[in-house]
Specification:
Elements (H helix, E strand, L loop, with lengths): L2 H5 L3 H7 L6 H6 L2 H4 L15 E2 L5 E8 L6 H11 L25 H5 L10 H11 L10 E7 L5 E6 L5 H10 L2 H6 L3 E5 L5 H4 L2 H7 L4 E5 L4 H9 L6 E4 L2 E6 L2 E10 L3 E11 L3 E6 L6 H11 E2 L5 E7 L12 H8 L6 E5 L4 H9 L24 E4 L4
Parallel strand pairs: 1-12, 4-5, 5-6, 6-7, 11-13, 13-14
Antiparallel strand pairs: 2-3, 2-15, 3-4, 8-9, 9-10, 10-11
GO molecular function, one term: iron-sulfur cluster binding
Protein name: MBL fold metallo-hydrolase
Keywords: Iron, Iron-sulfur, Membrane, Metal-binding, Transmembrane, Transmembrane helix
Length: 392
């Protein structure tokens, strides 16, 4: 065996030894040893469940918006001023729940009372009201993407992951990408909400403006305000509360709910897995608060997929969302290479600095065009697309 071969670690050995943290922050706090195969000697052997979720022909992801907010300084200043990362997000007095009482003094009930009668159809008027009553309404953006799946019979399926934050920004993005018409025509089968955070969920009236009957999947753990907001936003369709664990949707597609606490008094994250014919597993995430380590490790433990290959990943990977690089994050960059991903489409809370680190490490990062207020070409920005099993 050559010295080069001795230095290589098999993907299976790495998976067996990789640490699985309950929180992204916990994973970030661990050293390289925690991600390494050397730790496998101290862990029990993993019994893979190998759940069969079926297979699909290909998927395409369109980035509707990855710009959740436009100024890190304003966002973090507001959070700090309102009491910190553990404070209930509905009290921040951010749009659309601003009630004019000032930073950290708001509530869901006081805020929604100002605009409920306008939802979901009169969003321009609702946003004009909330702009006058909220903290930094101009900073609100949002995360959302469209997923198009072709099944093995050639049928097309369309799904939304998340609905952003700002009514104004997200409506503009929906119209730019033709999402508004797809919703009107009932082409989009369901909306999956990754988690209850403001930048992924609070823009849900924009989806309901165009299709108030769309089936909506939310992860178990939503607080009373979040459940109430679904109804107050004008939703008239089915709401499916998805329990923790693996939840098949159609052949080749399953969601997985991670039961984890998240900042701003949010609980639970729902991410998506796709088994693409002849390629392998593609993982799609909103924020990946569970950490990229746990996201990939869960796939390995739970799911049977083509070629036993973790082929691709898309979304926010929550490594350096505020561009506050710490040397321990380099461990995560190093560990990502051990998974053997063939295609990486990152943006949003991955962080620009982190995306650049991926590129420098030689990882197969698909770059974007830096249009529509996305800041860098180093990741997939607003309006960009990525295909898995299909060219775009």
């Amino acid at each position: 065996m050559s010295s080069d071969d001795k230095g290589k670690i098999s993907r299976r050995d790495f998976f067996r030894g990789a640490a699985m943290g309950a929180l992204g922050g916990t994973a970030l706090a661990m050293g390289l040893y925690s991600y390494s195969p050397w730790r496998k000697a101290h862990l029990p052997k993993i019994e893979r469940k190998m759940a069969d979720i079926g297979v699909c022909k290909n998927i395409k992801v369109t980035n509707i918006s990855e710009t959740s907010w436009f100024s890190n300084a304003d966002l973090m200043g507001d959070i700090k001023g309102a009491g910190g990362l553990l404070v209930n997000q509905y009290s921040y007095n951010w749009p659309p729940f601003g009630d004019g009482t000032g930073l950290g003094k708001g509530s869901y009930d006081k805020g929604i009372a100002k605009i409920k009668h306008l939802l979901p159809h009169d969003l321009d008027e609702a946003w004009a009201i909330t702009e006058k009553l909220s903290m930094h309404p101009e900073n609100a953006g949002g995360f959302a993407c469209l997923i198009e799946l072709e099944d093995m019979q050639g049928r097309q399926h369309k799904y939304l992951l998340d609905s952003g934050w700002s009514f104004k920004w997200m409506d503009e993005c929906f119209q730019r990408e033709g999402i508004d018409q797809m919703l009107r025509d009932r082409e989009i089968e369901a909306l999956f909400i990754s988690h209850e955070h403001f930048d992924h969920f609070w823009g849900i009236p924009v989806t309901y403006k165009y299709d108030p009957t769309i089936t909506t999947y939310v992860p178990d753990g939503f607080y009373p305000e979040g459940i109430k907001f679904l109804k107050d936003s004008g939703h008239k369709g089915q709401v499916v509360t998805v329990k923790p664990g693996l939840n098949p949707v159609v052949p080749g597609f399953a969601s997985f709910v991670f039961a984890i606490p998240i900042i701003c008094r949010v609980y639970g994250e729902q991410s998506l897995y796709f088994n693409v014919k002849d390629l392998g597993l593609v993982s799609v995430t909103g924020c990946c608060h569970q950490s990229i380590i746990q996201f990939a490790e869960t796939a390995y433990q739970e799911i049977q997929y083509e070629k036993d290959q973790l082929y691709g990943v898309y979304g926010g990977l929550h490594i350096s969302p505020f561009e506050d690089w710490d040397p321990k994050y380099d461990d995560l960059v190093l560990s990502l290479g051990k998974y053997g991903f063939q295609k990486i489409g990152c943006n949003h809370c991955t962080g620009i600095l982190c995306a650049k680190k991926f590129v420098e490490a030689g990882y197969p990062v698909v770059k974007g065009t830096a249009r529509h207020r996305s800041k860098e070409t180093v990741y997939l920005g607003n309006g960009d697309q990525i295909g898995f099993g299909i060219e775009v």
